[in-house]
Amino acid sequence: MESFIKYLLPRIVYLVKILSAVLLFIMMALTFIDVLGRYLFNAPIYGSAEMIQFLLALTIFSALGIVNADDSHIVVEVFEERIRKFIPNLHGYLIQGFSVLAMAFISWQLYIFAEDSYHLGSMTTVLEWPLIIVTGSVAFLSILSLICLICGLFVKNLYKKAEDSKTSSGSN
């Protein structure tokens, strides 16, 4: 199992990095072309604002997988110091447990939203695209992000255990 996760996680992160870069590039190019069309030719791209909103959501949730795999979240130090002071041995587990629970809750809610948009046949406001395309993609990316978070924590704990065993065997 350990070797499977060590094999799988870097590949998922690599694919998500490529996806994030492509989405960000498309969003940049669409914005650039829309602004050129709007101000030079008085012909903006129809629905570009809505497309950029979708691309932004997809970019955020694809990049979240990278952040979760690397465990490089923003830390609110107001709470962290207090937690570290009161329960120093459980600090890391409490923080990581909260991260997993929060990401699981977000993924669950996004899945419900995607399912509702599918069953209701919801369409986007301007372009009238099926909303399930965006909601389903965001839900999938959030679930992938949750998997990256769990695998990243697993790999991080494996390395920590390996370092602890090296330290304890080296001190004997």
Folded structure, characterized:
The protein has one domain. It has five helices and no strands. It is 82% helix and 0% strand. The chain has helices at residues 2-40, 48-70, 77-86, 91-120, 132-170. The longest helix is centred in the first third of the chain and has 39 residues, at 2-40.
Sum up the structure in keywords.
single chain; 172 residues; mainly alpha; elongated
Helix content range of the residues, please? over 70%
* Poorly predicted segments: none
- Mean pLDDT equals 88
**Structurally, how many domains make up the residues?**
1
Largest sheet: none
Q: From the alpha carbons, calculate the radius of gyration and give it in angstroms.
A: 21 Å
Which structural class should the secondary elements be placed in?
mainly alpha
Order of helices and strands: HHHHH
Distance between the termini: 30 Å
Total helical segments: 5
Task: Write down how many β-strands occur, each being a DSSP E stretch of 2 or more residues.
Answer: 0
